[in-house]
Amino acid sequence: HGRKRGQEVTYTFTKTCSPALPWSPREVTCEENYMEVRMLTVALFIQSLSLAYRSASVWTVRFQKAGQQATTMNLQEARTQGYVFNVAHGRIVFRTPYGQPDSDSIMVNDVPVEVIQATLFSRQSWVVLMVDLVIACSMYQGSYEDGGYMTWETPETPFPGLNAKQISVGLSGELMEQPVAESRGYIIEKRNNTVRIVIPYSAEGRHRTSVMIGDLFEFFIFHLYMEQISVDKDKVETRLRHHRALTTGLLRHPVITDNRTVVEDRIFTIYLGDIPEDVNLVGLELNGQLFTAPFTNTSTCEVGEEVHPDTTHGFTLKVSFDDPCVIQQFSTEDAVVQYQLDVNYTLTIVPDDEPFYHVASFVAVWTDLTPPAFDAFCSETGIVFRLDRRSLDHKWEVVIGSDPLTSDLANQYGYIMSNDGNDLLLEAPLFTQGYEYKNITLEGFNGTFEIYVRDRETSNIQSSTVKTCPFTAEELIVCSTDGMMTVVADLSLAVPSGGVPASTNLLDKNCGPREADDTRALFSFPVNTCGSVVKLSHGHVTYENRILFDPELLPVTTNTSTDIDRVTVQCAYPIADLHRLFSMFRFEADTTVVGQISHSAKLKAAIEPTTALHTPLPATPQTTGLIAVRAARHPPVRYVKVLSSLHNTAKKSQYFNRQIKGFD
Ligand SMILES: *[C@@H]1O[C@H](CO)[C@@H](O)[C@H](O)[C@H]1NC(C)=O
Ligand SMILES: *[C@@H]1O[C@H](CO)[C@@H](O)[C@H](O)[C@H]1NC(C)=O
Ligand SMILES: *[C@@H]1O[C@H](CO)[C@@H](O)[C@H](O)[C@H]1NC(C)=O
Ligand SMILES: *[C@@H]1O[C@H](CO)[C@@H](O)[C@H](O)[C@H]1NC(C)=O
Ligand SMILES: *[C@@H]1O[C@H](CO)[C@@H](O)[C@H](O)[C@H]1NC(C)=O
Ligand SMILES: *[C@@H]1O[C@H](CO)[C@@H](O)[C@H](O)[C@H]1NC(C)=O
Ligand SMILES: *[C@@H]1O[C@H](CO)[C@@H](O)[C@H](O)[C@H]1NC(C)=O
C-alpha cells in the first residue's frame, strides 16, 4: 500500500518468484514488518504438523522470554494472536509480527535486537515431537552521519553458537558480495561482534525526495537488503536476511546562487546551483519580466543548464548589461553607470509541481565610461556607420557637424538610420550633408564623412570616427566653403567633331581644364575667378561660369554652326553665410563680392543641392584634436551633383528652383 496526499491507497498484485539459490537448512528473514524462520525438518514432523491443523490435534507452542515464565497455547490460539505456523516445501515456517508480547527486545553489544523463541511440541502416543524455532532481528534504525553516510548495525551472528561466514549487502533488492559493495563505496566493518554497514548517500538504489517546508529540504530512503550466512559446528548453514528501510531526517538543501559576473564583460553571469534532480526550473523573472521554460536564447540573454555527477543540476543565466530588462542608473556625479538585475526563479518539485521561488539581486557598477566606438564601412552609395553598443545613451550623444543625431536630423538630411536591437546603423548616402570631397579626378574621388561622440553634459567631443571611401561619378560639381569650384563635366556634346575636351576653357580663356579625357574635363578654380558671373537672388549669391570650346582651334573645313551643347556651371551660397566666406578671402566690397556660379546648359542639370559640413582649411591646425576641428568649422559647403541627361529649358529652371530651395 502507499500514501498519497495523506490518503491510504491499496494496490493488489500477485507475483510468484522462485529463489535463485537452494534454501539453506535454516532461513531467517527480518522483513520490514515481520520476522520469520523457515527450517528443514524431519518428514514425520512435517506430516504430523500438516495433520494438526485439520485434526486440531494436540500440538502446542510454548514461547519463552528470558527470565520469565513460558507461555503455552495451542496452534489456533497462537494464530489468533498473529503467529503463523505453517508447512511448505518440506519446511516448517514460523512467522510473527514485531513487538508481540512473547518477544524480547534486548541489546546485543549496544545493538537493539528483537528475539522470539518458540518451541513446538506434540505428544502422540509414545512419541514426543519437539522443535525449537528462534528468530533474532536487529532493530537498529540506522543513523545518518553528516559526512553523507547512512550507518546500520547488526550482531555478527543472529544467535550464539554460529560462526559468521559471508556477508552480502545492497539496496532495493540488489545484493552484492562484500568486495563488490566495498568497491562501490560501502564500508563493512566487524567490531566487537557487531557488523557495521556504512552506505554512501549517493549509492545506487537509494531514494531521495525533495520537500518544501518554508525552505528546501530533502530526505533519503535506503531500502537496505543484507544477507548473513553463518554455520554451526556441524557446518549446517543459517541464512539471515534483513530488509530495512533506513530514512534520514529532513536535511536542509539550500539552492545557491553564485555571482560570476565579470564587470568588464558587461554581462551578468549568475549560476543557480545545487538544484536536486527532482527540482525543475520552470520560470525566471528578470526585473519583473517573466520568462517561462523552455527558455530561448537571445543575443543579450541566455540560459544554459548543466548536470553534475552528484545528480544535482544548475543553470547559468547570462544577461548583458545592455539587455532591455536590465535597470540602468547613471550617476553624473561619480560618472558611473549602475546596472541592476533582480532575479526571481520559479522552481517546482516533481511530481507535484508545487512552485517555490528563489530570489536574488545583483548590482554591477560600470566605471569605464569610454565613449562608444563606431565601425564604418563603404557601401556603393555611401558610408555606413555601426555602433555596437547602445548602452551609454544617457552619457553620450552622436553628433554630425554640430547637430546631435536624431531621427529628425536624419530625415532632414536624408540619412538612413536603423536600430536593430543592439546596433545603431547610420547610412550617409553620398552627397548628403556632412561629406567632404577630396582628390577629385576624372577617375573618381574620395568622400569623407565624420561623426563624433560627445558628452551630453559638457558637450565635449570625446571621439570621432572618420571614414573615407572612394567613389566614382560621371559628372560632378563641388562648391567648397573655401571658394573653390571643382567640376567634372561631360563635354561630348559640347565639343564639335574634331575637337577634344582638353581644348575647352572657362569664360576666361586662360582657365583651361586641369584634366581631360576623350569625353570629359575637370576644372578647378576659385569661384570668383576665370570670368565667373556673379548674381544675387533669392537670398543667395550665385557664381556662374561656362565651359566653352574655342572654334578657332578647329580646322577651317569643320562645320561649327552645328548646335552644340553649352555647359554652364554655378555655385550658390546663402548670403547669411557670406560674411565668413568673404572674411576668409578678404573680398573687398559688397558689389565686387556678389557673383554667381551655376552648372547648367543644354546638358541639363539635375541639381541636387546637398547641404553642409565643415571643410577645414589646409591652414587649420587639426592635430590638436576635435575641439580644434570644431573651432575651425566653416560655413556649409554646397555640393551639387550634375546628372548627364538632357533636359528642356522648362525643366532646367525647375531644377534651378530646386537648387535654390535646397539651400534654404
Ligand atoms: C565492545 O563492547 C563492549 C561492551 O558493550 C564495550 O565495553 C567495548 O567498549 C566495545 N569495544 C569497542 C571497540 O567498541
Ligand atoms: C542557450 O545557450 C547556452 C549556452 O550559453 C546553451 O547551453 C543552451 O543550449 C542554449 N539554449 C538553447 C535553447 O539554444
Ligand atoms: C517571485 O515571483 C512570485 C510569482 O510571481 C511572486 O509571488 C513572489 O512574490 C516573487 N518574489 C519576489 C521577492 O518578488
Ligand atoms: C557580483 O559580482 C560583481 C562583479 O564581481 C560585483 O561587482 C558585485 O558587487 C557582485 N555582487 C552583487 C550582489 O551583485
Ligand atoms: C589628396 O588631397 C589631399 C588634400 O585634400 C592632398 O594633400 C593630397 O596630396 C591629395 N592626393 C592626391 C593623390 O592627389
Ligand atoms: C582615397 O581613399 C583611400 C582610402 O580610403 C586611399 O587609399 C586613397 O589613396 C585615396 N585616394 C586619393 C586620391 O586620395
Ligand atoms: C553646317 O551645318 C548646318 C546644319 O547642320 C548646315 O545647314 C550647313 O549647310 C552646314 N555647312 C557646311 C559648310 O557644311
TrEMBL record:
Residues 478-664 form the ZP domain. This is ZP domain-containing protein. It comes from Sphaeramia orbicularis (orbiculate cardinalfish). PROSITE patterns: ZP_2. Gene3D superfamilies: Zona pellucida, ZP-N domain. It comes from the Eukaryota. InterPro entries: Ig-like_ZP, Ig_ZP2_2nd, ZP-N, ZP_dom. It holds the Pfam family Ig_ZP2.
